[in-house]
Design a protein that fits this description.
heterodimer, A: 111 residues, mainly beta, six-stranded mixed sheet, five-stranded antiparallel sheet, B: 117 residues, seven-stranded mixed sheet, 0% helix
Chain lengths: 111, 117
């Protein structure tokens, strides 16, 4: 089963609002990744984090690798309708093939 | 640079049949991993190939198998299909296999949607 706890499971927000989601684990990871998946498509990499404490931005997206290496969060500022989708966190322990995924956060943005 | 490609995008099979799915990684990427995605179980790791050898395997029955060719392209095969095998099968590629850092970051293809009737 999954080792990552991703929350919230779903979010319904108004366009323009900020969004925050996070993942926690009982295990340490060396890498944290955040993906977005649209219906019928594969996950698209948004942000990759490689060092504990690292804070990285990609446009309106900001993600941080927790100091304990057991958690990460993703923030989306000023949400727009195209932000709709499922956001997944993934942790790696140094072997790419064993990425562990969270269950996803489904984001709905109301215009 | 072209992304990860998967063929076919959609497939309908009946129980008992077998299926082969194909994945072409990003040019230069040598590691290919396969995942099964279902609404109930999320993204589950199947196996990873590097240099034509299976390096890691998830917790799936032997009906699920794969291989990798010298050009890093990979195929996965599911034999004796069951209704529960209906899922989105995702392929992901990365530059390298082991260690940590940017060369391990996985990039996904669009997936193959398999429906078993």
């Amino acid at each position: 089963g999954q080792q990552l706890n991703q929350s919230p499971q779903s979010m319904f927000i108004q366009e323009g609002e900020d969004v925050s989601m996070n993942c926690t684990s009982s295990s340490i990871f060396n890498t944290w990744l955040w993906y977005k998946q649209d219906p019928g498509e594969g996950p698209v990499l948004l942000i990759a984090l490689y060092k504990a404490g690292e804070l990285t931005s990609n446009g309106r997206l900001t993600a941080q690798f927790g100091i304990t290496r057991k958690d990460s969060f993703l923030n989306i500022s000023a949400s727009i309708p195209s932000d709709v989708g499922i956001y997944f966190c993934a942790g790696q322990r140094g072997n790419a093939g064993k990425s562990t995924f969270g269950d996803g956060t489904t984001l709905t943005v109301k215009p | 640079k072209a992304g990860v490609t998967q063929t076919p995008r959609y497939l309908i099979k009946t129980r008992g049949q077998q299926v082969t799915l194909s994945c072409s990684p990003i040019s230069g990427h040598r590691s290919v991993s396969w995942y099964q995605q279902t609404p109930g179980q999320g993204l589950q790791f199947l196996f990873e190939y590097f240099s034509e050898t299976q390096r890691n395997k998830g917790n799936f029955p032997g009906r699920f198998s794969g291989r990798q060719f010298s050009n890093s392209r990979s195929e996965m095969n599911v034999s004796t299909l069951e209704l529960g095998d209906s899922a989105l099968y995702l392929c992901a590629s990365s530059l390298t296999l082991s260690g940590s850092g940017s060369t391990d970051t996985q990039y996904f293809g669009p997936g193959t949607r398999l429906t078993v009737l």
